[in-house]
User: What shape does this take?
Amino acid sequence: MTFFISLFILVMQFLWRYVDDLVGKGLDFVTLGELLFYASVQVIPMALPLAILLASLMTFGSLGENYELTAIKASGVSLMRTMKPLIVVTVIISFLAFGFSNNVLPWANLKLYTLLWSVKQKKPELEIKEQIFYDGIENFRIKISGKDPETGLMHDVMIYDHRDSRNPNTNVTLADSGKLQVSSNKSFMKLTLMDGVRFEENVRNEKKRLNDRAKQRFRKDKFKKQVALFDMQGHNLERSDEQLFSSNDRMKNLAQLQDGIDTLSTQTSEITNQIQEQTKNFYFQQRKYLHRRNKEIEKIAVDSAQILNSDSLFNALSTHQQLMAIEGAKRQAQDNRSQLEGKLSRYRNYNTKITRHFMEVHRKFTLSFACFIFFFIGAPLGAIIRKGGLGMPVVISVLFFIFYYIIDTLGVKFAKEGAWHVYQGMWLSSAILFPLGAFLTYKSATDSTLLNADAYIIFFQKLFKREKFDLKNRLDKEKEAESDAKT
Assistant: This one.
């Protein structure tokens, strides 16, 4: 029950996230059902830890509320022994979650994002609203003043033709009424206009003199009935090729991720070698250029076995040759800089992909380990608070899950930006929550009243009672002192 509650909440979150891309697309129920199915499969790794946390809280909270845990402990059975069979079940669920993340989740991600991309490329259904310019038809803007909901007849139709991008507002059509119909195969739309007029102005873009203005033409056509056809290409859902997204890290299992990391590492090493070779070649090219500019000095250096540096070679050139050398060096430096920037951009891109691949490798383990951690948080916490049902356990579960989600998002952000190592960012949430689970388990096993409201109420009652008693004693002493002073 808790699993399907968590799954429903996360699927609703998915719908709210992509509602703008889905509304007004005219999708059929089969496509919507397929989209929801893939979305449900995708959020299972996140719903499972939350479900285990909520279920363990409800179960042990109910046992504590009905004093069944007290009876179990009184009979000599410790809390850890009570949790032992459930620990085995949780371990099995964690391994199944890992298998699911490694095998089923990449397939679901591929199907989901391919279908989402196809839906985003689909143009919205034709729905012209009153007093609002509609731009759903390419190169045309349509505005109507009213529409009959029964017959679909539109009144006071205004159409701007923007097919001439240089002069977009020089072709306007006004009609008393019109009707838009879609063909049976949805390949084109038929617009029928009644009792209208069409204005067309031929305007030149160049600067106009008086004679040129006189040559401009203005055309006005009146019609009783006019029919226009519009292509419906892009309005139907066309499935994209899944191969476009198969190289993404979220669409791969562990073996494919490792192959991708090896390939990207090889490409990164090749780019690094190219950058080093280019840097060396640039230095030797400059020396070769200066030697070629002054062959006599080069001959003297070879004959006398002397080593001449670049400065001496440059100073030996004439002023004209020095200027030519500077311009040539400047051009070569600019060319090398441009090439290096391109290679560095590819290097950063490959490094980013390698980081994302490593993050996805760790994610397959961290989500499974989260199931194990949340059980050791929920079970002892339920035994401590001793509240069952869907009240207090739901509130505590949501708070813990939000805390986990914030820490996990923070760690993922640091890992993605390179501020931390990938394993540090991806395991940050587990490293924080695991000690918390161990602490709660210890407190529960020792019958701690850590989260027992009655214990805190009694503590504060005793505290206030003691303060009241101390205040009374102090007042009595002050009265005795006053009596002594008067005596």
Q: What stands out?
A: The two ends are 79 Å apart (CA to CA). Residues 300-306 have pLDDT under 50 and may be disordered. Strands lie at 140-143, 146-147, 154-161, 171-182, 188-202, 217-231.
